[in-house]
UniProtKB/TrEMBL annotation:
PANTHER family referenced in this protein's UniProt entry, alphabetically: PHOSPHOMETHYLPYRIMIDINE SYNTHASE, CHLOROPLASTIC, THIAMINE BIOSYNTHESIS PROTEIN THIC
Function (record text): Catalyzes the synthesis of the hydroxymethylpyrimidine phosphate (HMP-P) moiety of thiamine from aminoimidazole ribotide (AIR) in a radical S-adenosyl-L-methionine (SAM)-dependent reaction.
Residues of the ThiC-associated domain: 17-93
InterPro entries, sorted: ThiC (IPR037509), ThiC-associated_dom (IPR025747), ThiC/Bza_core_dom (IPR038521), ThiC/BzaA/B (IPR002817)
Name under which the protein is recorded: Phosphomethylpyrimidine synthase
Source organism per UniProt: Bacillus pumilus (Bacillus mesentericus)
NCBIfam families for the chain: PRK09284.1, PRK13352.1, thiC
Statement: the UniProt record of this protein carries the keyword NAD: no
Substrates-to-products reaction catalysed: 5-amino-1-(5-phospho-beta-D-ribosyl)imidazole + S-adenosyl-L-methionine = 4-amino-2-methyl-5-(phosphooxymethyl)pyrimidine + CO + 5'-deoxyadenosine + formate + L-methionine + 3 H(+)
Chain coiled-coil ranges: none
Positions bound to Zn(2+): H398, H462
UniProt pathway annotation: Cofactor biosynthesis; thiamine diphosphate biosynthesis
One Gene Ontology biological process: thiamine biosynthetic process
Amino acid sequence: MKEKKDVLSNQTLQASFDGSRKVYEQGSRPDILVPKREIMLSNTVTQAGDIQNEPIRVYDTSGPYTDENAHIDVTRGLKRLKATWIEERGDTESYEGRHVKPEDNGYRSKGKEPFHAVHTDFHHVPLRAKKGTCVTQMHYAKKGIITPEMEFIAIREQLSPEFVREEVASGRAVIPANINHPESEPMIIGKNFHVKINANIGNSAVTSSIEEEVEKMTWAIRWGADTMMDLSTGKDIHTTREWIIRNCPVPVGTVPIYQALEKVNGVAEDLTWDVYRDTLIEQAEQGVDYFTIHAGVLLRYIPLTVDRVTGIVSRGGAIMARWCLAHHQENFLYTHFEEICEIMKTYDIAFSLGDGLRPGSIADANDEAQFAELKTLGELTEIAWKHDVQVMIEGPGHVPMDKIKENVDRQVEICKEAPFYTLGPLTTDIAPGYDHITSAIGAAMIGWYGTAMLCYVTPKEHLGLPNKEDVREGVIAYKIAAHAADLAKGHPAAQKRDDALSKARFEFRWRDQFHLSLDPEKALAFHDETLPAEGAKTAHFCSMCGPKFCSMKISHDIRNQSDEVKKEMEKKAKEFISQGSQIYQS
């Protein structure tokens, strides 16, 4: 842990992309400053002179890490962006909170946990709702209040604040915004907004460290992750999460059952409601913005999975199924759901109702177990909404393309249009090492049909814990899928970037092509593998076709010839008129 201050020593992570700069659009008050990435474009060169191309502003998830004027110290955490907004509402109170115990980090006794070795200046004092109040964004929206968070989102999405409020009030969209995570920049998840992507990070019992996970987080948001999920299952779970949240400008989600299981030494049968409740409050006080809770895995549904090819593949689902069978009792997450709602609304934590019975293979897609659980998730959604708690619904999984739309149609009907959040889905099972591709195919389709957020899959899926480069590959694959879905849905701001890049490509403005791409560094590297000279950045060809066979160069030649023909035709027309418009001259 001694190298914690060096986590972000890589200056690449603290600078904007080449040809870009961080800009801010101000809202109705000085402290509503919405970040955008502004991509500068070069001029279009024509025979008549240069034509200026205006910069393109795009959605930015990287937080202050790409702001050259920001000072980042991970031992202090990010600026508390929303603290004033939360305080102004007057419905929260600070309190001491629970004390961190060795078992929170997976240790059985004091003195073994290493996290006290590194000094931090987080100074995080937890907040909660005052007695008798509700502090959720859904509650404010239902009361007709447009919060600063909603205005911030409206500017980000290029939509009206009132539209944002209506979508949140109806339950069609969620704003994950725990009052104890003031460092995060407001964002929204809903089918009528940009399709979002989530990136999973977290250590395991066999590999990774806190330093690596913090670096993965900054890496993922740089490439476009809209939310992060910390799925740590090894030691130092509490501390890893604290470092991530205090330094994360996007919402953070978790699966609390993972840490609860660590507290009972990995024995699912020993889980209790009290252990789980304590874990919820622990994570709520830290600032987790949404919880995946597998409350739909009911005792009577477990036999439906027996004949599956891959059984129960959800870790949380398998844990709860084992507990139910061991005690022959109903899932305690289901029986205590109202109590969970009380905790959620005390901190404004959104439900991500987990699909513990999701299909883990193409053969199991859209089966009875999957849809039985979905029906229960629909019932739980309505209970949460009565408490003004925000809800999104998790979805599969492994689904062939012909069965994807049915998943969306059923979810919309059963869950009353609560946002759908899916893992892929993977459209085939035969490509280990390439599952970021097999799943991005399904993700693009399900996003087009109305899914609000896509959980990324990396090339390491089913094979091992992803490293930094795997995270990058997964995020980029899913940014492609999400953007393709935005285009198909007709999001008003989606096509501007495509049009700008297409124009740059046709005009051989190579630098602009690189800067406008989702992965500028890779685009530049691929180009320079064969044409590294600076002069090649203005050449009217690439190494694929060369100067003689480039279709766009030929198109330019045709266009220039057409211009010459047109000018000659206009000249002849003028001559014709000047000669009296006579077809035959006497």
